[in-house]
Amino acid sequence: MNSQLTIRIRERMQSFSKGQRRIAAYIEEHFDTVAFMTASRLGAAVGVSESTVVRFATELGYSGYAELQRAMQDMIRNRLNSVQRLEFTISSVPYNDLLEAAMNQDIDMLRRTLESISKEEFYAAVESLVQARRVYILGSRSSLALATFMAHYFHLIFEDVHLLDATNEAQIFEQLVRLDKKDAVIGISFPRYSKKVIKAMRFASDTGATCVALTDCESSPVAMAASHKLLVRSDMVSFVDSLVAPLSMINAFIVAIAIRKQQDVRANLQRLERIWDEYGIYEKVDENEDENHVG
User: Exposure winner among 135, 159, 211, 248, fewest CB in 10 A?
Assistant: First the structure.
């Protein structure tokens, strides 16, 4: 069961009513089932009223039963392998509702991230990157897409940026051999966490480098090795990672750093624009020409 939920229950057990203790015991024994039961169904199964179930959730520090239920569902999804996730989606989401379900899930991830993010931690991470001599970025598997996106824009901001090749652990450590306390390492990983990213972050922490973790929670092994934590909600749409909230955080992170280093960034962009124009890197679109071709 969710370790945080277990801790909350144990800390408040003495203050629970008899009915609330029965709810706690039932949740511990039937965690996977309760995660998808309504408050009324849980109450009926335990032999208490729906209002008692709702009060139980608020006693645990949740805003209501819906938030408690989401916490349990998050834990279940994080424990499932890819095949189980696919089967879960097939059984729980009607095919004709998949588009709405996937987009609403991403919207929920963004909202919950915005509600929980620490602005102080965000801006402290920004300042630590502004001061870094070299920046190393590491993401594995689906998180590699996020790392690549971040590295692309960081090359416009910093002089020395390295997107680490995570093919194997030996290569990662070889690329970090010159790392010291003047440098920064950004590790990106979400459940199921990459062992390569975890080991690299621990190595970077031991060298005294600034370590920034982009991950989902304080208990993430990536976060435990970091000096700064950017915590965002992450989930899966079936067996596919939902990276909307992490990408939104990266967007904000890039822009904040660019503003702090605006003089350098402005000069770099001006040079690049001249190069792009001179060598015809981008296709120029004539808006009037498009209008003439309409119809």
Answer: 159
Q: What span, in angstroms and rounded, lies between the C-alpha atoms of 169 and 102?
A: 34
Any residues with CB less than 8 A from the CB of 160 and at least 6 apart, and which? 133, 134, 135
- In the chain, CATH 1.10.10.10 sits at 1-79
* pTM, rounded to two decimals: 0.73
* Other residues' Cβ atoms within 10 Å of the Cβ of residue 160: 12
Nearest to 135 by CA among 165, 167, 166, 157: 157
Comma-separated ranges of CATH 3.40.50.10490 domains in the chain: 115-277
Are β-strands 210-215 and 184-188 bridged in parallel, bridged antiparallel, or unpaired?
A: parallel
**Domain spanning 115-277: which CATH class is it, in words?**
alpha beta
Q: Distance of CA 146 to CAs 83, 102, 143, 211, 239, Å? A: 24, 19, 5, 17, 18
> Which fold is adopted by the domain 1-79?
Arc Repressor Mutant, subunit A (1.10.10)
Digits of tens for pLDDT over the chain (295 positions)? 445 777 888 888 888 888 999 998 888 888 777 877 888 889 999 999 999 999 999 988 888 888 888 777 766 666 666 676 677 667 666 788 888 888 888 888 898 889 889 999 999 999 999 999 999 999 988 899 999 999 999 999 999 999 997 777 888 999 999 999 999 999 999 887 889 999 999 999 999 999 999 998 888 899 999 999 999 987 655 567 778 999 999 999 999 999 999 999 999 999 999 999 988 888 877 766 555 554 4
